[in-house]
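Dear Dr. H.,

I hope your travels went smoothly. While you were away I took the liberty of generating a structure for the chain from your last submission, since the lab meeting agenda had it listed for discussion. I wanted you to have the full record in hand beforehand rather than looking at slides cold. The sequence, exactly as received, is reproduced here:
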Amino acid sequence: MNSHQTESHMHFTGDFPIIVEGVRNAFGEHVIHDNLSLTVRRGEIIGVVGGSGTGKSVLMRSIIGLQVPTEGEITVLGQSITDARDDDDIDIRSRWGVLFQGGALFSTLTVAENVEVPLKEFYPEISAELRHEIARFKVMLSGLPPEAAAKYPSELSGGMRKRAGLARALALDPELLFLDEPTAGLDPIGAAAFDALTKELQDTLGLTVFLITHDLDTLHEICDRVAVIADRQVIAVGTIPELLALDHPWIQEYFNGPRGRAADAAQHRAKAIDKSDGQGA
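The corresponding predicted structure, in token form, is as follows:
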């Protein structure tokens, strides 16, 4: 793939690949965001949380150019998204990958063919043989068995469909990875495995990950920082201990409620086990 990268596909060297400033999103009279701002650091996994209707997915869609804010500025990898006249003006789309909630796979295509869709769109000049090879590699990278490449989405479990969607999101070797509720609907074992895969991909590929989730275990296990959306804005961004030091009622209820306490206790147990294993070695 590297031999086919254009100048616009060169790596972004700034510290903040995503900058959202003063964004307003509204549907008619219904205002979702008002003066919302958020800065994402290069190489981090940032979790985005908020109550139902706070517009977490709307924010993600705004960042990738699918939702046009009525006010504000969004810069991604050094390029203005809000100044683009239409989708064709966003020439950095090949530099991010998106896993939409539910996978959003084409039901009439096999997993491998789904992975090849962005390759055909952005690199039509590469041979079919190379496309097939890249697709097989991305399927393997997502943790699916090789035989899954030839299966249709309807033949896969929910967890496998998520991984197939992830393989497609990774097709173009992106710098940014957007994940919308990636562990929703998965059992605890499957969710933990997906979290571990996300962290491994971030480490090995140097990804910046924008992660929308309700999963408190995910927030504790793999997120470097968490952004909280409430009152139509990002009201706080920080580590979970930093957020717990704030007195906002939603933050306290979310992280200090029964589920939050259970996730925190589980993480402390895991750290204690890791520590004892290290001492034993």
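Two observations you may find useful: The longest helix spans residues 258-280. Confidence is low (pLDDT under 50) at residues 1-10.

With kind regards,
E. W.
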